[in-house]
Structure of tRNA-specific 2-thiouridylase MnmA:
Amino acid sequence: MTDTPQRSRPLRVLAAMSGGVDSAVAAARAAEAGHDVTGVHLALSANPQSFRTGARGCCTIEDSRDARRAADVIGIPFYVWDLADRFREDVVEDFVAEYEAGRTPNPCLRCNEKIKFAALLDKALALGFDAVCTGHYAKIVTLPDGSRELHRASDLAKDQSYVLGVLDEQQLAHALFPLGDTVTTKEEIRAEAERRGLAVAKKPDSHDICFIADGDTQGFLARRLGKAEGDIVDEAGTKVGTHEGAYGFTIGQRKGLRIGTPAADGKPRYVLDISPVNNTVTVGPAEALDVTALTAIRPRWCGAAPTGPGTYTAQLRAHGGETEVSAELVDGELRVTFTEPVRGVAPGQAIVLYDGTRVVGSATIASTTRAKTAATV
């Protein structure tokens, strides 16, 4: 098994350039490796000023200009592609609909699946490109038979394989991740960018959600869905407070509950359940969040689908740790049992399975089984 930052022959590569330092260095490395590279910035908003402003590395007019300047320094052609309609439908509207249904989506994962490695890749292949290059920190390993695997990045502190767990075998065959194939820290990436004369060397990383300009997710959802006052209840169904929209809460949330009645034991309470049907939020003690098993739907495999039950590690959040699980595909659904109970697991989130550093695949959490009540949420 060998790590291959590039194939044996030069490729026609479309480098997705967000305007940040990672994608700029990735494009530069691809060009330096001898590939025929063209840079492209994705215009994801019909009104870019409605997205984040400042040096955030995604989705603004300023970012488009930063990407163009980086392409000029690298010496590659550069274009801006308008994917605003597709982004709005597949990412923004999906995000709103998921929260409205009481689930907790990951828009970055959806963007990778639907935009960068579906809409963008499809267009790239149609235009005769061989691969799409991004600045993600992940590693592609090529096996002796030519098949490819997705692995964690060498720098685990920057690993982004979780948000790439939606990529299938065909998409991996046309992907390049130049930053993940060597032991490279973010500090080294910035130093490399400076050596290459890229003005984005010191540009801050992008954080949070690119299409929520002020970072206020609850306010964004309120503007889209409207205020809808409802009850906050405890496990017994007793009203302990009110809210202005159940969509503004996530499973495991502690802050911002605005509960007027304290718990009998004086301990903090957490969101246990969100019911969009009756617009009710249920709260309770931390131990009631312990999840022992879950069912996930719409599995996507980074290669062949597993056969029979297996033991893996699982990651449940983009910046979360790994936990040991047993998992099996049953009637198209992924059934997962945790070796030790975990908390903060919410329907709508993605679970990504790993075999060592290899990404096996991902699925969307549909329901969970709690340890305290042995009830399915």
Summary: The first strand starts at residue 2 and ends at 3. Residues 1-6, 50-57 have pLDDT under 50 and may be disordered. The helical segments are 21-32, 61-74, 84-100, 107-126, 169-172, 186-195, 217-225.
